[in-house]
Amino acid sequence: MWNTLSAAIVAMIKTSAEVDSTAVFDYAKSKMTKYPTITVTVAGNQESYFADTSRVGRTYNFNIDIFQERFEQGEDNAERILRTIVDDLISIFDADVYLQTALAGRGYAKPFNGDWGYTGEQLNTRSARIVIACQVIQ
Where are the beta strands (DSSP E) in 14-106? Predict the structure, then answer.
């Protein structure tokens, strides 16, 4: 299920007009050569519950991390780029809670705005996180 959901999340991110689809990865990228770069990784916490007497519900959480270089782009432009992408991605996930067909008939996904921060040498990269919680009935 983790791989199915991760692939669906990446596919939805790539539909954004604000994103270069060649800079979207389903793993934590150690070296970024293009900005903005987006990574999708497992958040690491999974909840389980009884959906009914024969099915189990599970919550699969993913982090979507967006990285934007600040100095070459300009700090003000970098901030605007990041805000625009976050707004667009949240809208995309709000509009399709079934992750195209991955959760159709068996669950839904909900985006949450996460942490914003700075990374890299001299804090040259601005980052934002969106958490996607996928509720799945199995």
Answer: 24-25, 37-50, 56-69
Buried b (16+ CB within 10 A) or exposed e, 22-49: ebbbbeebeebeebbbbbbebbeeeeee
pLDDT surpassing 70 at residue 37:
yes
- Gap between the Cα atoms of 72 and 33, Å rounded: 13
| pLDDT at residue number 45 | 65
Residue that the structure tokens 């991605």 belong to = 89
* Rounded Cα–Cα distance for residues 72 and 53 (Å): 57
Question: Exposed/middle/buried for 63, CB within 10 Å: 0-12, 13-18, 19+?
Answer: middle
Read off the pLDDT of each residue in 34-58 and give the average, rounded to a whole number.
86
Which structure tokens are listed for 71?
Answer: 């100095």
pLDDT tens, residue by residue, 83-103: 999 999 999 999 999 999 999
Indicate the pTM of the whole model.
Answer: 0.92
CB burial of residue 99 (10 Å; 0-12, 13-18, 19+): buried
Q: Respond yes or no on whether the N-terminal peptide bond of residue 111 is cis (omega within 30° of 0).
A: no
